[in-house]
């Protein structure tokens, strides 16, 4: 459940104290973005797939500052805007050209990710893509 993901290590520049722990100078630190993405105080249902996290009461998109899939700060992914545009175009193209269904019906799809020591990965699914 606490996979590292794709983050770059940071190093402490001096001895520091954090939440009662001493972190010596030159210690390698990996930011745990997973903890932000699963924080109970920031998400109404943090361990479930819930599109409502990103919609207001009228169904319009709302940005949630706790959603940081590309990291944050000066070490954030420089290709974030390109990646978002490419993902959007790819998905729109698929949805324009195909109708998707599950061979066992929509209730058979498990939306909980699989956890590994490297990253959270989507489960494998069988889908039927029917050309429109």
Automatic annotation (TrEMBL):
Binding site for heme: 77
Single GO cellular component term: cytoplasm
Keyword Metal-binding among UniProt keywords: yes
Keywords, ordered alphabetically: Heme, Iron, Metal-binding, Monooxygenase, Oxidoreductase
GO biological process terms held by the UniProt record: organic acid metabolic process; xenobiotic metabolic process
GO molecular function, one term: heme binding
Keyword match Plastid: no
Family listed: Belongs to the cytochrome P450 family.
Matches recorded under PANTHER family: CYTOCHROME P450 2G1-LIKE-RELATED, CYTOCHROME P450 508A4-RELATED
Stated name of the protein: Cytochrome P450
């Amino acid at each position: 459940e606490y996979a590292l993901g794709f983050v770059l290590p940071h190093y402490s520049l001096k001895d520091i104290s954090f939440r009662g722990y001493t972190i010596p100078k030159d210690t390698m630190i990996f930011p745990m973005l997973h903890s932000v993405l699963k924080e109970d105080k920031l998400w109404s249902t943090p361990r479930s797939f819930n599109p409502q996290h990103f919609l207001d009461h009228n169904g319009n998109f709302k940005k949630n500052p706790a959603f940081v899939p590309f990291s944050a700060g000066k070490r954030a992914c420089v290709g974030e805007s390109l990646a978002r545009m490419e993902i959007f175009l790819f998905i729109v193209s698929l949805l324009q050209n195909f109708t998707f269904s599950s061979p066992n019906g929509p209730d058979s799809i498990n939306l909980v990710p699989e956890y590994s020591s490297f990253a959270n990965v989507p489960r494998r699914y069988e889908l039927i893509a029917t050309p429109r």
